[in-house]
């Protein structure tokens, strides 16, 4: 087995952060006089970064998503989100799998649309900051996923060799496709599209499966 780079998405892939995002979102909505939204509603807004999330919050609240309130709510949400980790959980088997991949000599990267501040906070919370050789957040570069630039930057940081991207969503599938990387789809995250309709090289539902998937890479 030759080591390769394994680059991960974060929210909906390694962590279930929707409860924290839900709580922060409803707190900000309440501050601005809006009614709370449900967890499934807010989960469906996750994946394209904070500005998109706030756009969706305003739209769902029947307010102008492109008006002046958007910038204020982005700032308010970001302030709350910076250390929002208490309701977030790792998906089963994530820590064990990351440790095993690292011990086997694979380089690990993170490429997420989550801002870098909350990303570092949640990695620190789970004592995982030393596992990743590169971490690219949603505000690390001018572009966010599904633009391929963040994923290509993570790949460049890891030596630009053999690599695969692991994610859970439509955005991740589009990003991998645009970057020309094989995509391993975690099926238990935040996707809204049926698995069969998302472009992917391989799909898995349990992190206990990922070690074997990486061992057999490349799959063609």
Verbal overview:
With 220 residues, the protein is an alpha/beta fold. It has two domains: 5-16 and 88-215, HAD superfamily/HAD-like (Rossmann fold, 3-Layer(aba) Sandwich); 18-81, Putative phosphatase, domain 2 (DNA polymerase, domain 1), CATH 1.10.150.240. Helices cover 40% and strands 13% of the residues. The protein has nine helices and eight strands. The protein has helices at residues 18-31, 39-43, 50-60, 69-81, 94-103, 116-125, 149-157, 170-179, 210-215; strands at residues 5-8, 15-16, 89-90, 107-111, 134-136, 163-167, 183-186, 202-204. The strands form two sheets. It has a six-stranded parallel sheet with strand order 5-4-1-6-7-8, sandwiched between helices. A two-stranded antiparallel sheet has the order 2-3. Helix 6 links the parallel strand 4 and strand 5. The protein is globular and about 55 Å long. The two termini are 15 Å apart. The mean pLDDT is 95.
Short summary:
With 220 residues, the chain is of the alpha/beta class.
List the helices and strands and how they pair.
Layout: E1 5-8, E2 15-16, H1 18-31, H2 39-43, H3 50-60, H4 69-81, E3 89-90, H5 94-103, E4 107-111, H6 116-125, E5 134-136, H7 149-157, E6 163-167, H8 170-179, E7 183-186, E8 202-204, H9 210-215
Helix pairs in contact: 1-4, 3-4
């Amino acid at each position: 087995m030759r080591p390769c780079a394994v680059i991960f998405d974060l929210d909906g892939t390694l962590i279930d952060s929707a409860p924290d995002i839900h709580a922060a979102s409803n707190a900000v909505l309440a501050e601005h006089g809006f009614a709370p939204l449900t967890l499934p509603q807010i989960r469906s807004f996750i994946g394209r970064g904070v500005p998109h999330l706030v756009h969706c919050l305003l739209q769902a609240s029947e307010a102008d998503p492109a008006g002046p309130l958007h910038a204020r709510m982005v700032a308010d949400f970001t302030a709350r989100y910076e250390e929002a980790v208490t309701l977030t959980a790792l998906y089963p088997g994530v820590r064990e799998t990351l440790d095993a991949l690292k011990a086997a000599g694979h380089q690990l990267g993170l490429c997420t649309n989550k801002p870098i501040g909350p990303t570092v906070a949640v990695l620190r919370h789970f004592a995982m900051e030393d596992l990743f050789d590169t971490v690219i957040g949603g505000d690390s570069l001018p572009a966010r996923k599904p633009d391929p630039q963040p994923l290509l930057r993570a790949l460049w940081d890891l030596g630009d060799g053999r690599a695969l991207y692991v994610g859970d969503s439509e955005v991740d599938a589009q990003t991998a496709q645009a970057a020309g990387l094989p995509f391993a789809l975690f099926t238990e995250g935040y996707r809204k599209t049926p698995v069969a309709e998302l472009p992917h090289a391989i799909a898995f539902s349990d992190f206990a499966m990922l070690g074997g998937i990486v061992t057999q890479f490349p799959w063609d």
